[in-house]
Design a protein that fits this description.
The complex is a heterodimer. Chain A is of the alpha/beta class. Chain A has a six-stranded mixed sheet, sandwiched between helices. A four-stranded antiparallel sheet of chain A has the order 2-1-4-5, with helices on one face. Chain A has two domains: 155 residues, 3-Layer(aba) Sandwich (Rossmann fold), CATH 3.40.50.300; 68 residues, no CATH class. Chain A is 39% helix and 26% strand. Chain B folds into three domains: 253 residues, ABC transporter involved in vitamin B12 uptake, BtuC, CATH 1.10.3470; 93 residues; 192 residues, P-loop containing nucleotide triphosphate hydrolases (Rossmann fold, 3-Layer(aba) Sandwich), CATH 3.40.50.300. Chain B contains 27 helices and twelve strands. Chain B has a six-stranded mixed sheet with strand order 8-9-10-5-11-12, sandwiched between helices. A four-stranded antiparallel sheet of chain B has the order 4-3-6-7, with helices on one face. In chain B, strands 1-2 form a two-stranded antiparallel sheet. In chain B, a hairpin with a 2-residue loop joins strand 6 and strand 7. Chain B is elongated, with a radius of gyration of 29 Å. Chain B starts with a helix and ends with a helix. Classes of the chains: A alpha/beta, B alpha/beta. At the A-B interface, helix 6, helix 7 and helix 10 of A face helix 23, helix 24 and helix 27 of B.
Chain lengths: 238, 639
């Protein structure tokens, strides 16, 4: 479904990604782990079109998308819940969610009904968001904002979701919830690419995993296999 | 040292010697007049660059301040009998006073509102100059007598030399200021006013000072302007001049003394360049070639043809095409300016000199300036001792947001030398509590005592001077400053040399010490290798550590770390734990907010658990882990 071929990308004169090859098959959960500064977030930004690669191709369902604008890529069914909870602060929680489905919902007729259906799905996953539906997103706590970013990515029924650090800054009990949600999504057959610092949990939920080091894929393999891999154990699982 | 020194100071020296020797070869009074004007606008634009470049505000008052300075200098000669330099000082002083008067209210505003406030000032100032006929002779215009110097009457070259000398002095003084803690503070408060206050640098005070200095330079340039033209009319200081000045700063390049100079050269020379059709046509062709070349280069490197490369080419095509058909270029002047401005703003957002500086330092492989050796940690972080039982004592603290009880009756003691953990579900009030302690919020009720004294309420700036420092959960770094400079901004009790002496260049030793101290702290957190990188270019983990190093520069007794491990991978978390241990060994008391329970267990002597704004448990990490309430509300079942 999603293939990265020899991607080089960076900011200004510093090249962060130095030839990344990666593949996400439909219906699987793929984890991307590695130390800070290894290039995980940069990889995500390159896939979603926020950053243009200097070399290489990104294929989504066989179509090269590396030159497309981020908005066009989103319309192809790729959603992203970015690191650092980029929610629209002054807007209400519900408006934030609706913006996630901006291109997905019908323009005029049946908007309300369809929107409600989508909102209800999200509220079923995250009941807290329903309680806070009218509150300004900027006044939510960090964890609630993370859930909102997560819910917003789900609103447009994407084909593939990029999750960047979904557990960052969340209480342990909420982290468990987030991973339970990921399992639910996986059971529902949604394709996920997951960047995560909690390597252990990420490997538990993922089918396949890549380990990044200094802008390259250092190790790749089935999650079960990586969980046994000594290099991974030593460096990332502690 | 040497290559860098040659390129910066050497080129400046070469520029000014060349400019100073020009009158020896040029006898054409018209050309000399243009050079004089170049020096005058140079002074004015250096002043404008302080607000537009460093403070990042759109300042539309500089033309009015130039006018006020011009009238003040002229009137002080006719009515008070001032001499030449006294009159210039008068222009400078009046610019300074009006700058402060305008800044005090206007700098409470931000962005478009600030721009509008300065715009109204210009309207009021020019109208007043026009209507106060008894003093300024209004629209008729004011004839100015230029006082002679004691050595005799001014020649055209003599006056030019005086203007050039003043430009050189202003250049030197402003470089001293902008490379000192003042320049860093200006950039810091543009990037994050909250963090600037929290690091003990008063934002408002610095903003007003920066604006006042810029305005005073506008007034000084006004005095020179008056004695250059010897005739003043209020409407010449209105909107057109204002736009041209702004254009000069943006075209030349912001935050750059050379940029101000090149901008001044452009606004002086361009009208003359454009008055001759042949010159204008060759100019347009050169512009087009540059745009095409830049586009081709980018295409080759990135295989991309973006708006940033297309737009300048289109603009220059239009200009070159127009040049073929237009003979009366004078009439089209403004449209031509507009096209050029558009092309430069889109293609080179950093301005001509911003671009040139960057390219030149790449071409000459200028290593970033050398760093002094780091100091022993003990000299930068003095070992803190306390005889008190409680360093921080919070009693019945409450904070309500509307109906939400974010902090609801919290009482807490922090023992000196300990690491005090603060955990709880998201939204339980941890960050609110920290914001109350550090003065970002004022409590609804309750008291906070620090070292036995009540803490100042509701002022980040005042709290930061009591010995409390903090990091921010959602990073608040000064993104456009280097890692080293981020720490230098926050250094406590480091900058003692007053501004006038700094302008004279007496801050060198102080600056070297500050760099060494900042480097020591960067080494303490293990990111000294990246000292000269911009904070925004650092990897996420390094940014987190930089927050800690910057807070340590306050030499705090109490350090509040707000989720330092958030988003850190396992190897980095281990490093972080070591760093926090090292900080504790300096006698610094720490409040640690964190979700990584292994970090909390490893480090904390005592842990307080918040839920719904209330304390639900207090104890050692092991006690907390077994507490059923905490497991239910926060930890969840172990997996």
């Amino acid at each position: 479904m999603l293939i990265l071929e020899n991607i080089h990308a960076g900011y200004g004169s510093s090249e962060v990604l130095q030839g990344v090859n990666l593949e996400v098959n439909a219906g699987t959960v793929v984890a991307l782990i590695g130390a800070n500064g290894a290039g995980k977030t940069t990889t995500m930004r390159t896939i979603s079109g926020l950053l243009k690669p200097t070399q290489g191709r990104v294929l989504l369902n066989g179509e090269a998308i590396q030159h497309n604008e981020a908005a066009a890529i989103a319309r192809l069914g790729l959603a992203q819940a970015p690191e650092g909870r980029h929610v629209f602060g002054p807007l209400s929680v519900e408006d934030n969610l609706l913006l996630g489905a901006y291109r997905y919902l019908p323009r005029f007729f049946g908007y309300k009904k369809r929107a409600q259906v989508q909102l209800d799905k999200i509220y079923a996953l995250f009941p807290v968001l329903q309680q806070r539906a009218t509150q300004q997103a900027g006044t939510l706590s960090g964890g609630e904002q993370q859930m909102l970013a997560f819910g917003r990515a789900l609103m447009a029924e994407p084909k593939i979701i990029l999750l960047d650090e979904p557990s960052m800054g969340l209480a342990p009990v909420i982290v468990q919830e987030v991973f339970n949600t990921i399992r639910q999504l996986k059971a529902a057959g949604i394709t996920l690419l997951l960047v995560e610092q909690f390597a252990k949990r990420a490997l538990e939920v993922a089918d396949y995993a890549y380990v990044m080091e200094r802008g390259r894929i250092a190790i790749a393999g089935a999650s079960a296999q990586l969980q046994q891999d000594e290099r991974v154990l030593a460096a990332y699982l502690g | 040292m040497s290559k860098r020194w040659l390129l910066t100071h050497g080129t400046e020296l070469a520029l000014f010697s060349a400019l100073a020797s020009l009158p020896l070869f040029i006898s054409n009074t018209y050309a000399l007049g243009l050079l004089t004007l170049l020096a005058i606008y140079g002074v004015c634009l250096i002043g404008l660059d302080v607000t537009v470049g460093y403070l990042g505000q759109v300042n539309l008052a500089q033309s009015a301040l130039l006018g006020i300075g011009a009238y003040a200098a002229s009137l002080s000669v006719t009515h008070l009998g001032f001499g030449f330099f006294a009159a210039l000082a008068c222009g400078f002083g009046v610019g300074l006073i009006f700058g402060v008067i305008l800044a005090l209210p206007a700098l409470r505003l931000d962005g478009p509102q600030f721009a509008l406030a300065t715009l109204s000032f210009t309207a009021i100032a020019t109208t007043t100059l026009n209507e106060m006929e008894w003093l300024t002779q209004g629209a008729q215009g004011l004839h100015v007598t230029r006082p002679d110097l004691w050595i005799g009457e001014f020649t055209a070259a003599g006056f030019y030399w005086v203007c050039l000398l003043l430009l050189a002095l202003v250049w030197l003084a402003m470089r001293n200021m902008l490379q000192s803690q003042w320049g860093r503070a200006f950039e810091a408060l543009r990037d994050s006013p909250i963090a600037t206050d929290a690091m003990g640098v008063g934002t408002y005070r610095h903003k007003v000072a920066g604006f006042a200095v810029g305005s005073a330079l506008g007034g000084l340039a006004g005095g020179l302007y008056a004695f250059n033209f010897q005739y003043l009319q209020p409407h010449s200081f209105g909107f057109e001049l204002m736009i041209i000045l702004l254009l000069g700063v943006v075209l030349g390049g912001r935050k750059n003394l050379w940029g101000a100079f090149v901008g001044a050269a452009l606004i002086v020379l361009l009208p003359n360049l454009l008055s001759n059709p042949i010159l204008f046509r060759s100019f347009a062709v050169i512009g087009l070639s540059i745009a095409l070349f830049a586009g081709w280069q980018k295409q080759r490197r990135q295989q991309l043809f973006t708006f940033q490369t297309q737009a300048p080419i289109m603009a220059m095509l239009l200009l070159a095409g127009g040049a073929l058909f237009i003979d009366n270029t004078e009439d089209w002047r403004k449209a031509i300016f507009a096209l050029m401005l558009f092309a430069v703003v889109v293609g080179l957002p950093e301005g001509l000199m911003g671009f040139a500086t960057r390219r030149l330092s790449q071409i000459f492989r200028l290593d970033t300036s050398t760093l002094p050796a780091a100091w022993p940690v003990a000299e930068v972080l003095v070992l803190q001792t306390s005889a008190l039982d409680d360093l921080l004592e919070i009693q019945q603290l409450k904070h309500y947001f509307g109906g939400v009880r974010a902090v609801d009756d919290v009482s807490l003691r922090v023992v000196p030398g300990q690491i005090h953990g603060l955990i709880g579900p998201n939204g339980s009030g941890k960050s609110t509590l920290v914001n109350l302690i550090t003065g970002l919020y004022s409590p609804t009720s309750g008291t906070i005592h620090f070292q036995g004294q009540p803490l100042p309420v509701g002022s980040l700036y005042k709290v930061s001077h009591t010995g409390i420092a903090r990091t921010f959960q959602n990073l608040q770094l000064f993104t456009e400053l280097s890692a080293l400079e981020n720490v230098m901004v926050a250094l406590r009790d480091q900058y003692r040399i007053p501004l006038p002496l700094l302008l004279l260049g007496m801050g060198k030793q102080q600056e070297t010490n500050a760099r060494a101290k900042a480097l020591t702290l960067l080494a303490l957190v293990g990111i000294d290798a990246q000292a000269q990188q911009l904070a925004k270019d650092l990897p996420y983990g390094a940014q987190r550590l930089l927050e800690i190093a910057r807070a340590l520069a306050r030499q705090p007794r109490l350090l509040i770390l707000d989720e330092p491990a958030a988003g850190l991978a396992h190897p980095d978390v281990i490093r972080l734990v070591e760093i926090i241990r090292r900080i504790q060994q300096r006698g610094i008391t720490i409040i640690l907010i964190e979700h990584h329970m292994d970090v909390v267990s490893e480090l904390c002597d005592i842990v307080t658990v918040l839920d719904g704004g209330k304390i639900i448990a207090t104890g050692t990490p092991d006690e907390i882990k077994r507490d059923p309430d905490v497991v239910k509300a926060y930890l969840g079942e172990p997996c």
